Amino acid sequence: MESVKVKPEETRNWLALPQQITTLIFQKLGVMEIIARAQWVCSPWRKLAKEPTLYRCMDMRNPWQEIWDINAYDDYADLAREAFKRCNGDLEEFSMENFATDELMYLARYVTCTSLRCLRLVCCYQVSDEALMKLLENNPFLEEVELVDCDFKAETIEDVGRSCPLLKSFRLNGEEKEGSGSDIDDNDDVDEEALAIANYMPKLRRLHLSRNKLTNTGLEAILNGCPYLKYLNLQECFNIELNAELRKKYERIEKLVVPDDLADDYEFDGAGKYLGSNDEDDASEVSNEDYVLESYEEKNKEKAKEEGKLKLCIDGAIKMHIEGNVSDATELVRKLAL
């Protein structure tokens, strides 16, 4: 009987990829994956991993691998320090969750040199008002700021507006706690943050307030003080009464999320809690870890789908490059980067 020769399975030589495509793959990985994993694969990748353009966007939110391990915070801080060294003063987008400290804020201030356009902090209780303001004062061209479940004073919100005159998008999410957004203490100046926004952020296009204690007075001030506002989220701001007079004023708002709308356009709230369900009965029976696991599986499916599309495009670009169609391959890489 004649034996059948089995053709050996072809394996991709990743080192043969054009540098443009490898750079694109690294950009999709993000700074944490590059520093913690990709750079250790081989010498060429280690060299590429030091390219400053890869560190223009530093997103260090929701590190899934160790999300419940508080002992890993120092490791994440080390990753951030290394990324700061490599960005060469061109950092444009900076996002952190849980492990940000005053030290990291001061480092960010040192390396940004007015380059920062977007800042997002989630559950960064260790960051002081002073450290935040030092960073903002050094970056007057910021257009987007998000402070989610942080603990900054109302005066600091005013300083954010003063330091960032070009601000177009601002998110201020209060801490999630029982009675949040509705309990008013006699000593509370409940509209202080709203008035700071109204008086010092006139160019806002998007405003997301969540679990804020503002009243109709604060909301009316925002509508008057922010004439370019197109998106307004008032989720769980239960001290607001949307009467006829207010309804007339927010007619120009293209997208309005009312206080009792439980849907949220922010995927994660606090330390990894997934907001994929609006059913309170179901939520009360499922732990935070279950939410995270469910979300992680869903994200893996989406990631696999995206990686499949990316693989097909990369294969096409490699084939074009081998066949000598360098210009077509370059154009495909350019489209992938968009």
Strand arrangement across the biggest beta sheet: 1-2-3-4-5-6-7-8
Q: Which class best fits the helix and strand makeup?
A: alpha/beta
Report the CATH C-level class of the domain at 17-54: Mainly Alpha
General form = elongated
Succession of helices and strands: HHHEHEHEHEHEHEHEHEEEHHH
The CATH architecture term of the domain at 17-54 is Up-down Bundle
Provide the residue-averaged pLDDT.
78
Q: What is the tally of beta strands?
A: 10
Radius of gyration: 24 Å
Q: Give the terminus-to-terminus CA distance.
A: 56 Å
Which ranges are low-confidence, i.e. pLDDT below 50, for 5 or more consecutive residues?
268-297
Summarize the structure.
With 338 residues, the chain is of the alpha/beta class. The protein has helices spanning 19-29, 31-36, 43-48, 73-86, 102-112, 129-137, 154-163, 192-200, 216-225, 244-249, 280-285, 288-322, 326-337, and strands at 57-60, 93-97, 118-122, 144-148, 169-173, 206-210, 231-233, 255-257, 268-269, 273-274. Helices cover 43% and strands 12% of the residues.
